[in-house]
Amino acid sequence: MKTEIATTPAFEIHDLTVAFERKPVLWNIDLTVPQGKLVGIIGPNGAGKSTLIKSIMGLLPLSSGYVKLFDEPIDAVRDRISYVPQRESVDWDFPASVLDVVLMGRYGKLGLFKRPRKADRDVALDCLRKVGMEQFVNRQISQLSGGQQQRTFLARALAQQADTYFLDEPFAGVDAATESAIIDILRSMTAAGKTVVVVHHDLQSVADYFDWVILLNTRLIACGPTEEAFTSAKLQEAYGGKLTLLADVADLFRRENFPNRESGTTKQQL
Amino acid sequence: MSSLIDFLSLQDPNIRYVVLGVILLTATSALVGCFSFLNKKALIGDAISHAVLPGICLAFILSGSRNPFFLVIGAFATGWLSTYVVDVITHRSRIKEDTAIGLVLSVFFGIGIFMLTVIQKSGNASQSGLDHFLFGQAASMVGQDLMVFSTVAIILVVMVILLFKEFTLIAFDRNFAQAIGLPVHLIQTILTSLIVLAVVIGIQAVGVVLMAAILITPAAAARFWTHNIRTMIVLASIFGAVSGVSGAYISYVAPAMPTGPWIVIVISVIAFVSFFLAPRRGVISRMLRQRTFRRTINEENILKAFYQLGEESREFRTKRLPEEILTRRSMDTVSLHKILKRLKRQGYLINSGNSWELTEEGLAKAQRVVRVHRLWELYLTTKLNIAPDHVHDDADTIEHFLTPDLEAELERVLNYPKVDPHKSEIPYDRT
User: Does domain B11-278 have CATH number 1.10.3470.10?
Assistant: First the structure.
């Protein structure tokens, strides 16, 4: 049993193409990531990093390809997968407290109609302690700083008690102390066998933070252990000159409203 | 006055039913409206409410009666259709949502008015009262109407209670809701249906033209008073109910008058009062806070002047005349006197006649202001490489609101420096 778990990849992506208004933002992505790694998704602005994890989570219609997590489609394993959206994707002026938000991490386990139980509160409070937010339990979320918002989101993810975590830019808008606190938590999660995938911007810290790197710029540049995938040649390929022809063809799709696959329009996933 | 007492005593069973019915309708409309408001879909309620009119007319034409059951079905059908059309237009064309809502609202309402006119000209006797749906007529709700509408209202309340957690999550973070596997589409369809139903039952009291007000205004007003979503929806329901009762009352004293405008005026007054008076978020509270800030700044500046004079003469706690203070801070003597008196009341100054002296607490406070000022100047020059002659104004603001823990952090980062960029000594507590 144990060996089987270890050999099943955390997730694999096969021939994935995703388009916005027909313009491909991810193009023929093929990759496999093993379990228990701290994975960085790296690439320039507009490379499709957030799109990649949204596609893995099944939040976007795919033009082609499929995604499997623990060798299953996402809908079969949602209770084992946690997703942290970008901080700016929600309205922090919403009438809720920090505890309310963290309790949302329990909703998947609770199911429809049921209210959070005392045990869920205990888990939520414990997760808040882990991210160092215990003194802000009843704070209104509109009064949080950027770093506190990220910690709240991380606590909500922890409350899901998942096996794989996808975090969209958890270091955006946080101070250095919070960043190192968050990375410590992520490391302890992978040490416990969890897989943690992080969309990351700062090239400086990549080698230090991650033991696996997905290098992306619309197409996949590299996917592998950091020392193999995060090389200056590969970086040059990702960040250096754009592939003008590729970008032009992508624009053509959008202008002509042309389907990305001959049968692509019927294959959209909800 | 006696009419009000008669009304409030609820002696007349007719009044009792109308009042209870209207409270139920307006409170549930307000309750459901909260989620429309939190989803930032305030305008869709307006489209739905205008779009139920053709449905009501159609139901009347087809059934030939004012049976509330058929009217609810007709209203629900076209109300739903309008939200669907708005959705299709926004997703399938380049037309944005606000334009789509405007289009749908006017087209549906136009058709509704057209049908209503045709019905009224047809001479069908049972049509009388159908025009009450335009501006609402609470008192016209009797017997069967009351039963049907109240049942729908109760269903709405139950549904909101059951799906409260899901509605809240989707309103706050739709992506996350989808990621944990909630059937987001289904739940949003249910919410839309609840909003349509809330409109359908609410129009009896408020009318289609002004229905959006009872959906959105109570929620917007309640939001001023609380940061807690549960409190918010309870408050919104109460606000809705209060305005509903006022509508029932006007129905009682002036049966010919439509109740909708009356209800809307009352709920608007509640919203205005909230806008001005609510703690923290209200306008007056904000103005008061600004005034407190200004006063604090003035007071601390005077204390700082005392301290600076003290630095010059090496004598901090000595009596000073207002004229001496004025050499440090230019202001008129009347304002200075007011500030001095306030500081005395707060225990930071004592006086004998016209000469004033720092108390021990006053000295400590003055010292802290000066310390923060100089620390901040030093921080800007050393960490941000800002020229020393550009840092003073910034520090003049920071000194009044830096929190103690940030101050401690500042001291730590700068490693407890002795002097600021202008070689003035940074004073620490002499403990």
Answer: yes
